[in-house]
Specification:
Elements: E1 6-8, E2 17-22, E3 28-33, E4 37-42, E5 47-53, E6 58-65, E7 68-73, E8 77-82, E9 87-93, E10 98-104, E11 109-114, E12 118-123, E13 128-134, E14 139-145, E15 148-153, E16 157-162, E17 171-174, E18 181-186, E19 192-197, E20 201-206, H1 211-214, E21 218-221, E22 224-227, E23 232-235, E24 238-243, E25 250-254, E26 259-263, E27 268-272, E28 280-285, E29 291-296, E30 311-316, H2 319-322
Antiparallel strand pairs: 1-30, 2-3, 3-4, 4-5, 6-7, 7-8, 8-9, 10-11, 11-12, 12-13, 14-15, 15-16, 16-17, 18-19, 19-20, 20-21, 22-23, 24-25, 25-26, 26-27, 28-29, 29-30
């Protein structure tokens, strides 16, 4: 059940929700799912505005503008769709599953990351591929910060690219987390990124490679539940990270079914929401920070079993939940 300051979207996906993304303007929410469908909702009105289908599960989607989006997934095809005219376009193909997709407003290009170990850059206006950039391994996560692209791959590699010159990686790093990268999101202030792993940890990293700045990086545990009866700790994977644009605070969602809000700069948790019916598979703040989309969707952490249906909750965010506690010294 949703709490009083939440509503549950009608007509939810019918299989695991892979991504939720708010539009840059307004309160339209783009949702992709393993049920092969990409859906567009008006989150405030709680209405389904339109949808289109891939032949296989969709793993990510993004807006180019309010009415036009891109998506990719298990069919390895880069699709575009115009909800205003209900027309679609195919830009091209990867050699394997497309895991991540981002649109760079500054350069007007589309970026797709795949398990074929490449990032591909597309010119949507010409409907063609611009370049194919080899990555160290399968792409698991991407974060876009202006003209900088942060890519997390298999084997805990993190490469940082400048989209204006993709002939070489600006920085080649190894994740400070000991286990597989699951999610990655860049700071709104463009100074760094947060990295999440399957072991329920978050790493706060900074772009500037200077030793002085790198001293500020740190990692912390989250999404762990202790059983007081036998003092056992259950560790859950971290599935999603979403930043609040105004405050630079961020939400994390994990396999424990909880959403936590963090003040990364002051190294403290601001709050934890109630437990949701299933794993938190995806999160997205609206651009004005007033809403948080929360996808509750079983991620098969415990294998195939009976589980709650897939749901999307729209939470009205209170300032005291996301605003850092700045007290005078």
């Amino acid at each position: 059940m949703a709490s009083p300051n939440e509503s549950e979207l009608s007509n939810p996906p019918q299989d695991t929700i892979s991504a939720v993304h708010f539009s840059a303007n307004g309160h339209f929410l783009l949702v992709s799912s393993w049920d092969s469908v990409v859906r567009l909702y008006d989150a405030k009105a709680n209405t389904l505005q339109g949808q289109y289908r891939h032949p296989m599960g969709v793993l990510d989607c993004c807006f180019a503008d309010v009415g036009f989006c891109y998506s990719g997934g298990l069919d390895s095809t880069v699709r575009g769709f115009d909800f205003n005219t209900n027309t679609d376009v195919t830009l091209g193909q990867h050699d394997d599953t497309i895991k991540c997709i981002k649109y760079c407003n500054e350069l007007g290009v589309l970026l797709t990351g795949s398990w074929d170990k490449t990032i591909q850059i597309w010119d949507p206006r010409q409907r063609q591929r611009v370049s194919v950039v080899q990555q160290p391994d399968k792409v698991y996560a991407m974060g876009l910060s202006g003209e900088s692209l942060v890519v997390g791959t298999a084997n805990r590699r993190v490469w940082i690219w400048d989209l204006r010159n993709m002939s070489y990686a600006q920085q080649r790093r190894e994740s400070s987390l000991k286990f597989q990268t699951r999610c990655l999101e860049t700071f709104p202030n463009k100074q760094g990124y947060a990295l999440g792993s399957i072991e329920g940890r978050v790493a706060i990293e900074y772009m500037d490679p200077s030793p002085e700045v790198q001293k500020q990086r740190y990692a912390f545990k989250c999404h762990r539940v202790k059983d007081a009866t036998n003092n056992t700790e259950f560790i859950y994977p971290l599935h999603s990270i979403a930043f609040h644009e105004e405050y630079n605070t961020f939400a994390t969602g994990g396999g424990d079914g909880f959403v936590n809000i963090w003040d990364g700069f002051n190294k403290k948790r601001l709050c934890q929401f109630h437990k949701y019916p299933s794993s938190i598979s995806a999160l997205s703040f609206s651009n004005d920070g007033s809403l948080l989309a929360i996808a509750s969707s079983y991620m098969r952490e415990d294998g195939e079993k009976s589980h709650p249906g897939d749901s999307i909750f729209i939470r009205k965010v209170a300032d005291n939940e996301v605003k850092p506690n700045t007290k005078p010294k």
